[in-house]
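Page 37, continued from 36.
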């Protein structure tokens, strides 16, 4: 709410999603010039906020790669206004296991043709880790992109099992 007050968007309309469906961003400016300093400050604050708001982590990752996506940043703020009471819930569970899910989007970026990987990990039924990251190299196929995403998740799962074993 402080971020909305600071940006003067407390009276904005609400939206159901933090980004438009199939929105493709680019570095080409088709509209008004963007205040670079203000844009960087807003994206920096959204990055900080995304540590506790998983639902915006992917779209914040995407807008942080572009300097001309002010309308996308404003849409994230509109989404945050409508979901200000949402958060993560940790509850006691009888399940004593680790579940992990992964996905990738082949050739996500039209600029450098790199794929996007993402995963999330649940420990005892509670979401504890998540990540969305552009892959370091260009994948030649969707299968290769999926395997790279899977290897990233497996490394995280091995690390998490080791930490849990150390903590008993």
């Amino acid at each position: 709410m402080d971020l909305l007050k600071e940006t003067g968007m407390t009276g904005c309309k609400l939206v159901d999603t933090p980004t438009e469906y199939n929105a493709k961003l680019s570095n080409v400016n088709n509209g008004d010039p963007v205040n670079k300093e203000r844009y960087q400050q807003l994206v920096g604050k959204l990055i900080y906020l995304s540590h506790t708001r998983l639902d915006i982590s992917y779209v914040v990752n995407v807008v942080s790669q572009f300097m001309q996506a002010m309308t996308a940043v404003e849409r994230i703020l509109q989404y945050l206004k409508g979901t200000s009471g949402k958060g993560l819930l940790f509850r006691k569970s009888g399940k004593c296991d680790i579940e992990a899910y992964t996905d990738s989007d082949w050739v996500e970026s039209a600029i450098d043709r790199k794929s996007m990987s993402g995963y999330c990990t649940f420990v005892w039924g509670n979401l504890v880790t998540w990540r969305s990251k552009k892959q370091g190299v260009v994948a030649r196929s969707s299968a290769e992109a999926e395997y790279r995403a899977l290897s990233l998740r497996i490394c995280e799962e091995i690390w998490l099992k080791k930490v849990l074993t150390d903590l008993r």
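The chain has a mean pLDDT of 79. Flag for discussion at group meeting. The chain is about 40% helix and 15% strand.
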